[in-house]
Amino acid sequence: MAQATQMASTLSESSRIPTNASRIVLITGVSKGLGRALALELANRGHTIIGCSRDQPKLDSLRQQLSSNNHLLFNANVRSNDSVEELTRAVVQNKLVPDIIVNNAAVINRNRNLWEVDVEEFDNVIDTNVKGTANVLRHFIPLMIQNKHGIIINMSSTAGRNGIVHIAPYCASKWAVEGLSKSVAKELPEGMAVVTLDPGLINTDMLVSFAGSSASNYLTPERWAIKAATLILDLTTSDNGASLTVKDPTELSSP
Description:
With 255 residues, the protein is of the alpha/beta class. It is built from 8 helices and 7 strands. It has helices spanning 2-14, 33-44, 56-65, 81-93, 119-147, 168-187, 205-211, 221-233; strands spanning 24-28, 48-53, 72-75, 100-103, 150-155, 192-198, 243-245. Strands 3-2-1-4-5-6-7 form a 7-stranded parallel beta sheet, sandwiched between helices. Helix 3 links the parallel strand 2 and strand 3 (72-75).
């Protein structure tokens, strides 16, 4: 038993990436908001970005902003298992298996009582936020297992830990992400971890959809990304299964 424990400890230690090492980071929903800001922040720190989005013009503009040509930006729809599978093939062909995955792609429903949300809008929220996350995990976890390491961040929300009026579909999707993540955490082998991350209230299109003009009172994605990037890079296998929050003032403050 002592020998088995020592072997597990050795595997965990050998699969850990030094905190100052360059990482390969996959970010879904990379074309705008938190995903774009996080990609630029991590790239500026010397890390390699794999980004996917359905918006080709915004992918093209992001490519121009990135600091080198070592990054891979791919037009993919996380709602489609086939599209994510195609992304996986491109990643393998380019020898860019990620060290870190940030499942960030998400949508929110328009403010409505649940019974006023039409079926197409409800399906879009669930298909993007829940099935999209599952599609990425389905195809990329086996690659990380082969590499014997990997950290996965599934973006959650305060709406994934509380009930909030008029966004029941979005709340349901984020509660599902929380449950999915805690279950997958129990399935992962040594050397890997999955966490959920509540970003806090940030001035994004999603917050504008929910809160209107008051969204401008909150932090910009660029300011948020400075702290979020450090938190993400500092995650280890000991965080497996945790529900985390980016602890930062929600109101604007001096840089």
